[in-house]
From TrEMBL:
Pfam families: p450. It comes from Araneus ventricosus. Belongs to the cytochrome P450 family. This is Cytochrome P450 2A13. InterPro entries: Cyt_P450, Cyt_P450_E_grp-I, Cyt_P450_sf, Cytochrome_P450_fam2. GO terms for biological process: organic acid metabolic process; xenobiotic metabolic process. One of its GO terms (cellular component) is cytoplasm. GO terms for molecular function: heme binding; iron ion binding; oxidoreductase activity, acting on paired donors, with incorporation or reduction of molecular oxygen, reduced flavin or flavoprotein as one donor, and incorporation of one atom of oxygen. Keywords: Iron, Metal-binding, Monooxygenase, Oxidoreductase.
């Protein structure tokens, strides 16, 4: 069956990601401190420990690896897609690019990186991003919950 070959190809492509996330989780396990939960992985590892006596627990290392892959993919894909669209908009509407560039230079200058609070002083840039996300949404709006 040709479909089986496709599934095998997908599985082969996923193996390296599982290995990468598995190593990251191993590092978290080695440095886990119940009094200092650093992130989602630490919290999940603590839940695995708490539920280890329950044979029906869904808190497992395999599930943690899958969740980590899902979070990484979901977060990076939407950001990449949004940046791609913004680049296309700036090429299509150079006047928008010029206004964004001028506003960023005015607020930040050339000497520092932006902070979260800088957005309050960049209404055009903030508005352009909001309009882009409305116009060219990177997330399907019809997902069942």
């Amino acid at each position: 069956m040709p479909f089986r070959s496709s599934i095998s190809d997908v599985r082969v492509g996923l193996i390296p990601r599982r290995v990468v996330f598995g190593k990251e989780i191993q590092e978290h396990e080695a440095t886990l401190d119940p009094n200092n939960v650093r992130d989602f992985v630490d919290g999940y590892l603590l839940e695995i420990q708490k539920k280890s006596v329950d044979p029906n627990s869904t808190f497992t290392r395999e599930v943690l690896i899958d969740l980590s892959r899902t979070f990484f993919g979901a977060g990076s894909e939407t950001v990449r897609t949004t940046v791609d669209w913004m680049l296309l908009v700036c090429v299509t509407y150079p006047e928008v690019q010029k206004k964004i560039h001028s506003e960023i230079d005015e607020v930040l200058g050339q000497d520092r990186f932006p902070t979260w609070n800088d957005r309050l002083n960049m209404p055009f840039t903030e508005g352009a991003i909001a309009e882009l996300m409305r116009w060219k949404t990177s997330v399907p709006l019809n997902l069942m919950h």
